[in-house]
Design brief:
The structure is a single chain. The protein starts with 6 loop residues before the first helix and ends in a 6-residue tail after the last helix. The chain has a four-stranded mixed beta sheet. The protein has a four-stranded antiparallel beta sheet with strand order 2-3-7-6, covered by helices on one side. The chain has a two-stranded antiparallel sheet with strand order 9-10. 51% of the residues lie in helices and 15% in strands. It has three domains: 114 residues, Acyl-CoA dehydrogenase/oxidase, N-terminal domain (Butyryl-Coa Dehydrogenase, subunit A, domain 1, Orthogonal Bundle), CATH 1.10.540; 106 residues, Beta Barrel (Butyryl-CoA Dehydrogenase, subunit A, domain 2), CATH 2.40.110; 146 residues, Butyryl-CoA Dehydrogenase, subunit A, domain 3 (Up-down Bundle), CATH 1.20.140.10. The protein is an alpha+beta fold. The protein contains eleven helices and ten strands. The structure holds coenzyme a persulfide. One of its GO terms (molecular function) is flavin adenine dinucleotide binding.
Length: 383
């Protein structure tokens, strides 16, 4: 694998950083306090191309390669993980599922608006009683004439109250993971309700919602893929999502490193900048090594994905390592900032709060370890 970025990749990364430093970084603390980003940022992100990076040009996207996508996710994670989540759930989890499994009509209907940031999508998999054990979800879809009627509930759904369309995973037969199907549900369909979950530790700028479905009726062409294929669609999409989370965690580590180097270089104690003390340099060195190691694991997974090779285990390793590294780095950054690290005038406490969910969602660290363990041993610890 060649680690040299092409001119296009380096150019997009520079464009992304410049845009985010101007349009997001100055506002992130206020958005975090307000528990909502200013939604006027969404079409601006669309114009730059963030929502269309892995959507082909024929569906209104930019059609970039996966490494460019992970570079964008890293820059978004460095700037504001709440914004990163809005983008990657809409274009990544929702958009990728439609791109890979949709009919031509479904792609034409949804992807151009998703790629432009004109509408948002969400991904309805997790339920109040089924998080890691996604294959046993309980939301039901039953056939009624030509329609499907959905009843049930979802929780922790990013973009839930803002989305125009939800990808909803529902049980169409009692056959474990093989009995799950996927449906594209416009959120203005009668019986669909989204309720925002307030008071989150991190990612406060993005809307996270509980969804409920009370006799939500959708036509036959709302089915994505085949009946019974829903769990595989979810798992395939999450493989890519885990690479995106890993990339955004690289951005958190990188952001913590940059902030810590800058702060400790000018903060003096005992007559010297604290960056001159060995114990502070140890913190900086640990963050720097974690940033490189997490980035290399992430790029390796993206490279496998780009070449069409199996990459699920590489995605799990990248997500596991990078998310744990993000928590470590943010914790160290708060320590290096001392009392100033504890208040929201400085960005490092937000990095810590945002990093904390990264080891939980899109598959906990424990799930990733068991996936890696299963790949190494051939023994399934989930049964
Ligand atoms: N890609 C394609 N197919 C996959 C797949 C993948 N990554 N992972 C599993 N499948 C398929 C399997 O091949 C199997 O197919 P068959 O029925 O044809 O044999 C089917 O799906 C069931 O697979 P498996 O037996 O592995 O299902 P499990 O219920 O054991 O899955 C884990 C267990 C824990 C791995 C899975 O439920 C998981 O990843 N949970 C975490 C969910 C998650 O990330 N939630 C966060 C949601 S977004 S915030």
């Amino acid at each position: 694998m060649d680690l040299t970025l092409t001119d296009e990749q380096a150019g997009f990364r520079a464009l992304a950083r410049d845009f985010l430093d101007r349009e997001v970084v100055p506002h992130r603390a206020a958005w975090d306090r307000a528990e909502s980003v200013d939604l006027a940022i969404i079409p601006k992100l669309g114009e730059i191309g963030f929502f269309g990076l892995t959507i082909p040009e024929e569906y209104g996207g930019v059609g970039g390669d996966y490494l460019t996508y992970v570079l964008a996710a890293e820059e978004l994670g460095r700037a504001d993980s709440a914004i990163r989540g809005i983008v990657s759930v809409s274009s990544g989890l929702f958009g990728t599922s439609v791109l890979r499994h949709g009919t031509e009509e479904q792609k034409q209907r949804w992807l151009p608006d998703i790629a432009a940031g004109r509408i948002l999508g969400c991904f309805g998999l997790t339920e109040p009683g089924h998080g890691s054990d996604a294959g046993n979800l309980r939301t039901r879809a039953r056939r009624d004439g030509d329609d499907w009627v959905i009843d049930g509930s979802k929780v922790f759904i990013t973009n839930g109250t803002w989305a125009d369309v939800a990808l909803v995973f529902a049980r169409t037969s009692d056959d474990g993971p093989r009995g799950v199907s996927a449906f594209l549900v416009p959120t203005d369909t009668p019986g669909f309700e989204a309720t925002e979950i307030k008071g989150k530790l991190g990612l406060r700028g993005q809307a996270t919602a509980a969804l409920s479905f009370d006799g939500v009726r959708v036509p036959a062409d709302a089915l994505l893929g085949e009946v019974g294929q829903g769990f595989k669609i979810a798992m395939q999409t999450l493989d890519k999502g885990r690479v995106t989370i890993a990339a955004s965690c690289v951005g958190i580590v990188q952001g913590c490193l940059e902030e810590t180097v800058a702060y400790t270089g000018q903060r003096e104690q005992f007559g010297q900048p604290i960056a001159s003390y060995q114990l502070v340099q140890e913190m900086i060195a640990d963050m720097s090594v974690d940033a490189d190691a997490a980035r290399l694991l992430t790029w390796r997974a993206a490279d496998l994905m780009q070449r069409g090779e199996p990459y699920g285990t590489a995605a799990s390793k990248a997500k596991l390592f990078a998310s744990e590294a993000a928590v470590r780095a943010a914790n160290l950054a708060v320590q290096a900032f001392g009392g100033y690290g504890f208040i929201d005038e400085y960005p490092v406490q937000k990095y810590l709060r945002d990093a904390r969910v990264m080891t939980l969602y899109e598959g906990t660290s424990q799930v990733q370890k068991l996936l890696v363990g299963r790949a190494e041993t051939g023994i399934n610890a989930f049964v």
